[in-house]
Each structure stands twice: as structure tokens, then as C-alpha cells.
Design brief:
- It is a single chain.
- By secondary structure, the chain is of the alpha/beta class.
- Helix content is about 50%, strand content about 10%.
- The strands form two sheets. Strands 1, 4, 5, 6, 7 and 8 form a six-stranded mixed sheet that branches. A two-stranded antiparallel ribbon has the order 2-3.
- The N and C termini lie far apart (about 70 Å).
Length: about 425
């Protein structure tokens, strides 16, 4: 038979059949490389004290109830997701289904987005404890000294639109409309409880009730928003606005110069190790008010006040310098230019306190200027790293949930720093 006769007819190939159901045997332990970051995350979480999370689990041996998801799995999943820039629970659920590293952490445990979301936004208390424990371990090992720290704030976009902000009068109108809608829907359900559309009506009633609750929370935030409004420049208290989507968010000036709803995230970083040692989240557009509370936080959690506190001009004020001086902490922040060009910024004023006069003289020296340069290499660098992990806009609403999300980013950052330091 010639070669020409041999190759007559359609070629036979093994064709792909993606519609066929297959049973695939998987050995997760051998498939995941030994140097994969997921293993390091799991080893880090194994060393943490999660007893408070296990105490909250209501399902117990010998008692009825469905077993709960292991907190160690949930924490590991979110830490790895944070390193990968994933902040949405639905996306994490998908990763647990097809991504090998997340499958390895789950170890055959099925995850749903609702459980992942609840853990992500409701763990602020345990995350505070874990942050304190992690920093304390590094302090005991001599890797973190807390002698010189740097403070910096960054504004993160809130999960609310500018059009969701309403005045008090408009909120009162919306509350009345929402209450009437809830009453109407409740009456319809009572009049015909066996209707085929009962489930749809119940869903509409829940949505209306939720809308009413959000408006009530917005009205609760209105006095605080009105108190911030200044009477000068044509701004009056009756022009204060609060968001019905996220009542705790406030419109702030962002780094690009625009104004959008946001939260202000304040971080304190140890300059020698770049480990975050203090966290504060609020809805104020300035940073100067956060220095004293952050110092209180360090003293309360670690029983230490840093000897040197580095902060930019937005984080510092003359009052802060006096307060920190009484605590035994020297503030290093840039001097502001005087209105009179013939006066040196380091020259004391007649109204200066002794601490402020000392600060002016100190910041006029080359040694202080060299020390202050470390702030940019630590605080600003850490903020950039956190943003690179995905902290650009919150997907949750409310101060507590926002703080929980920030603490996940902080814990993930410190975890990476601990790998580098040890």
C-alpha cells in the first residue's frame, strides 16, 4: 500500500468533550508546591490564639446543630485573598471552587459567600487582639522597638455615592414615605396571606423596612454632621447632608483633588521594621486629631510611648506637640513658613509654649531633618503597599465593618513583614 492510499479519509483525533462529567481524583497536599504562600499563611494562622473565635461557636459535640466553618480556615482564606488583592466575598467563593491554593486551605470544606462576608466584616474585635499579639511577639523578639514611629493617614473611598447624601428636611420626607410604604405592604399581606405572590410581597416589605432603617440611621448621624458644618463662608447647619447608603461616611477631599464619600484610615508604623503598630478609622477629613488617640492606643496595648513621633504637617498641630511632650514623646514634623518672609520658621513666637519653642529649634537642625526623612520611607511606603493590595474602596458600610476590613489589610501586611524579619 502506497503512502497516498494510506492517508485517505478523515483523520482520527482525540477531541475535547467539555460537556462530559468527570470524576477527578485530587491530592491537594502534593499538588500545592511546598514554597507556595498559602502554606506560609496557614503556618502563620496556626500560631495565632483563636480561642475567642472557637468559644463563640454554638455547635458542640453531643448537641444538635450543624458544624460551623473552622475560624482558622476563614482567617487563612481572607489573609491570602488580601495578599492577592481580593476583597469581595463572592469572588473568594469562586476561588475556593477552582483555585488550587484556596482549595488547599479549605481542605474539602465547602465555602459560601455569606459566611465569608460575615466573617470579613464582623471580626474587628478579634482582629484587634491578633494585631496586639503579633506586635507583642515581634517586640519580645527585638524586631520591633517602638522607639521611633511614623504616622500617616489615607482617605479610602466609601461604598456610597455622592447622590445618596440628603439634608435633614429631605430625610424627614423620605422617612415618612418609607413608613407609609411599610404599612401599605403589611396591610396587603394581612389581607391576602395565601396569595401566590406572598413571597414577592414579603421581599418588598423587607426592602422597605431596610430602607426605613437606613434613613433612621442617617438621621441619627445628622446632629454630628451639622456640628461640623461651619457658619462662615455661607455654609449653614441646615445644609448639612448625610448619606442614606452609608450614614457614617463623609465627603472628603481625595488625593486627586476631587471630593467623594470616604473614610480616613490612620496608621502608625515602626520605622525600623515597617510593622504597623496602631490603627484608627474615622470619618473626619483631617489628620491632626488622630495623634493623641493613637498614642493612647499604643500606651494601652503595649504599655509604651514612643520616644520620637514622626508626622507630616497635616497630622501635627501646636496642641499635639504640647500633648505629646507631656507624654515624653518628641514630635518631628516640618516647620510651616511664616507670613513674614523675613522671619525664620525655627524662630520662637511670643505665644509659643516651651514644648513648641523646643520643637521649632529642634526641626531647624540638620539632624532632625534627617530623622524626619524616615517618615516617607516608612509611613508613606506602608500606605502605598496597603493600597497595592487593594485598599482603594470599601465594599462594606459602617464604621465597624470598615475597621474590620482595614485590620485584615494590617494583619496581612504585618504577616509579610514578619516573614521578612524572621
Amino acid at each position: 500500500m502506497s503512502d497516498k492510499d494510506r492517508y485517505v479519509g478523515k483523520p482520527r483525533t482525540l477531541e475535547a468533550n467539555r460537556a462530559q462529567t468527570r470524576m477527578i481524583a485530587m491530592d491537594l497536599e502534593s499538588m500545592l508546591p511546598q514554597d507556595h504562600p498559602a502554606r506560609a499563611v496557614w503556618a502563620f494562622v496556626e500560631r495565632l490564639d483563636l480561642s475567642s473565635l472557637y468559644e463563640k461557636i454554638r455547635a458542640r459535640e453531643g448537641a444538635p446543630g450543624r458544624p460551623a466553618h473552622d475560624p482558622q480556615i476563614l482567617l487563612s482564606l481572607w489573609l491570602l485573598a488580601t495578599l492577592d488583592g481580593v476583597g469581595a466575598s463572592r469572588r473568594l467563593e469562586k476561588l475556593c471552587q477552582w483555585h488550587l491554593a484556596y482549595q488547599w486551605i479549605c481542605g474539602g470544606v465547602n465555602m459560601n459567600y455569606h459566611s465569608l462576608a460575615d466573617f470579613y466584616s464582623g471580626s474587628e474585635e478579634i482582629l484587634k487582639e491578633l494585631l496586639v499579639d503579633c506586635v507583642a511577639v515581634l517586640v519580645d523578639q527585638g524586631l520591633v522597638t517602638l522607639e521611633r514611629v511614623a504616622q500617616d493617614g489615607m482617605k479610602v473611598r466609601a461604598s456610597a455615592g455622592a447622590s445618596s447624601f440628603r439634608t435633614r428636611d429631605r430625610l424627614e420626607e423620605l422617612r415618612q414615605i418609607a413608613r407609609e410604604q411599610v404599612e401599605t405592604l403589611s396591610a396587603e399581606l394581612d389581607a391576602d396571606p395565601g396569595a401566590a405572590s406572598r413571597r414577592e410581597e414579603a421581599a418588598r416589605e423587607r426592602a422597605a423596612t431596610n430602607r426605613t432603617e437606613r434613613i433612621e440611621r442617617a438621621l441619627e448621624q445628622m446632629p454630628e454632621a451639622e456640628a461640623r458644618k461651619k457658619s462662615n463662608n455661607g455654609k449653614k447647619k441646615d445644609k448639612a447632608r448625610v448619606s442614606t447608603t452609608d450614614p457614617e461616611a463623609r465627603v472628603m477631599k481625595m488625593p486627586d483633588g476631587g471630593f467623594r464619600p470616604a473614610y480616613n484610615v490612620h496608621l502608625v508604623t515602626d520605622t525600623g521594621s515597617q510593622v504597623i503598630v496602631g490603627v484608627k478609622v474615622d470619618n473626619q477629613g483631617t489628620d491632626s486629631h488622630a495623634m493623641a488617640p493613637l498614642a493612647d492606643q499604643l500606651e494601652e496595648r503595649h504599655e509604651v510611648i514612643p520616644t520620637e513621633w514622626l508626622a507630616d504637617g497635616g497630622c501635627s498641630s501646636l496642641n499635639n506637640i504640647d500633648v505629646m511632650n507631656k507624654r515624653g514623646s518628641k514630635v518631628f514634623s516640618p516647620l510651616r513658613q511664616r507670613r513674614r518672609s523675613d522671619r525664620n520658621p525655627s524662630d520662637p513666637c511670643s505665644t509659643d509654649s516651651p514644648a513648641v519653642a523646643e520643637w521649632r529649634a529642634r526641626m531647624g537642625t540638620e539632624q532632625a531633618k534627617e530623622i524626619y526623612k524616615q517618615r516617607g520611607a516608612t509611613a508613606e511606603c506602608v500606605n502605598a503597599q496597603v493600597r497595592n493590595h487593594g485598599l482603594r474602596q470599601f465594599l462594606v458600610r459602617g464604621g465597624k465593618k470598615v475597621l474590620s476590613v482595614v485590620l485584615f489589610y494590617v494583619l496581612a501586611h504585618n504577616m509579610q513583614r514578619s516573614w521578612s524579619l524572621t
